[in-house]
Amino acid sequence: MPDNDGMTAARPTTPTTPSTPATPSTPADRPPLGLRERKKIKTREAIRAATYALVEEQGYDATTIEQIADRAEVSPSTVFRYFPTKEDIVLTDEYDPILLEELRARPADEPWPDSIRHVMREAVRTGIEEDLAVAKLRTHLMVQVPAVRSRMMESMSVTGRMLCTAIGERTGRDPNSLEVRVYAMSLIGGLMETSLYWAENDHQDDFANLVDRTLTTIQHGLPKETS
Amino acid sequence: MPDNDGMTAARPTTPTTPSTPATPSTPADRPPLGLRERKKIKTREAIRAATYALVEEQGYDATTIEQIADRAEVSPSTVFRYFPTKEDIVLTDEYDPILLEELRARPADEPWPDSIRHVMREAVRTGIEEDLAVAKLRTHLMVQVPAVRSRMMESMSVTGRMLCTAIGERTGRDPNSLEVRVYAMSLIGGLMETSLYWAENDHQDDFANLVDRTLTTIQHGLPKETS
DNA sequence: CATGAAATGAGAGTAGCTGTCAAAATCTAG
DNA sequence: CTAGATTTTGACAGCTACTCTCATTTCATG
Fold first, then answer.
1. Chain segment B160-197, per-residue pLDDT in tens
2. How many CB atoms lie within 10 A of CB B100?
3. Rounded distance, CA A191 to CA B183, Å?
4. What is the pTM of this model?
5. HSE (side-chain half, CA atoms, 13 Å) at A188
6. Minimal Cβ distance to B178: which of A57, A186, A210
C-alpha cells in the first residue's frame, strides 16, 4: 500500500502561545513575553479580524487570501504561515483543552453521564460566552459553507479522540476500544448537530438548553413523543 | 448577511441513471437504454476504475486529475463533468436509497431500536458485499487522507438528514426536531467511527459484528467493563 | 554594536476546479 | 440515408488555494 502521503497538516491544538488570556489590552503586563511573541499574536489576530470582517461583507468564497492579506497588512505567504488552510482562519478551536481540563476536574465518584453533562455544558458555555458574535458567525458559516462544515467535522473528530483518552482515564477503560470510540463520536456527532440546529434557527434558542436536551436524548434514546 | 455563495455541488444522490443494477456484464439485455446512456455509464466506470488503480499505485494525493483522465482515455474536463470533486470519484455512496427502502420495509409494529439494528446491518451488508475490495480501499483512504474523510463526513450528514425523515415517517415525530436530528447524527457518528476502527485494524474484524456492538453501545451507553 | 536566529515578503510553481466555445458523436425526422 | 437538432466531448483560458525557495528585514543576545 504505497500511500501515507496526503496528510494536510496536523494542527498542534495549542499552536504557539501557551498561556495567553484573550486580552491583548495592556501590552506590558507580561514580562516573560518577548516582542516577537507579541507581534506574532497581533499578526494572528489581525488576520482573523480581517477575515471575519471580509467574510461578513462579501461571504466566505468571495473572500480571497489576497484580500485577507491586504487588509491584515501582511503578505499572502504570511497568512499561510499562520493558518494551514483558509477554513482554519475562521475555526481554530480552543475548546479541546478546556474540555479536557474540565473533565479531569470532576470528582472521581461522580456518575459518568453526569460528568459528561457538566463538562459539555461548561465547555460550551465558556466557548460561547467568550465571544457570542464569533460563535454565531462560525455556526452560520458551518451551515452555509460546506468547506467550513467539513473542516469543523474534522476538528470534532480530533476532539473525539481526546474525549476517548479522557474517558479512558476516567473509567479505566481502553481508550481505543470500539465501545469507547463509538460512545465518544456519537456524543460529538450529536453536539455537532446541535450547533447546526442552533444556527439554522437563527440562534433563537438558548444554546445551553439545547445541549441539555441533546445529552438527554443521547443518554435515554428518543423520548416517547414531544413532536 | 451577504453569503449564500460557496455551495459546492448538491449531489443528486442518484446521479444520472435511474435503474441500473451493478452488473454491466451483458450489455444487450436492457433495450430501453440508448447508446448514449450506455456510453455515459461506461465512461463513469472507466474514470472510477482508473482512479482506484492509480490511487492504489501511487497514493491519493500523488494521483492527479490529468493522470486519471489519461488512463480513462477522456479529457480532464470530462472527469469534472462526471464528478464534482476528486474525492467524489472514490466515494459516491449508493447506500442512502438502500437504507431508506430497507427502513420503510420493516413491519410497523416492530420496536424502533430493532428496526434500526436490522436496517443498519442490512444496508452495511449489502454495501460491503457488493465489492469488498472497494469498501476496504475506501475506508483505508478515510483513515489516510483527510480530504476523503471530510468528504465522507459530509456525505454522512446527508445520510443523517434522510434518516431523520425516515424516523419521522416511522414514529410520527417531527423530522426537524432537535431530538430526532441528534438521535440520527449520533447514530451516524457512531457508525462513522466504526468504519474508521475497522480500517485502522486492517479490516480484521467482521464488520457486521462491529456494527452490532456499535448499536448496542449507542443504545445502552457504555457497558460496565469490557476489555 | 555585532552576530545569529527568526519572521517576513516576493515570486514562481502545482493542482483542483470553473467556465467558454467549437468540434464530434448521437438521436430523430423526413 | 441524409439533414438538422441535441448532447457530449476536448481544448483552452482563468481563478484560487496552497507549497516552496530565497533574499531581506526584524528581533534577541553577548
1. 998 898 888 888 899 999 999 999 999 999 999 999 99
2. 19
3. 10
4. 0.80
5. 28
6. A210
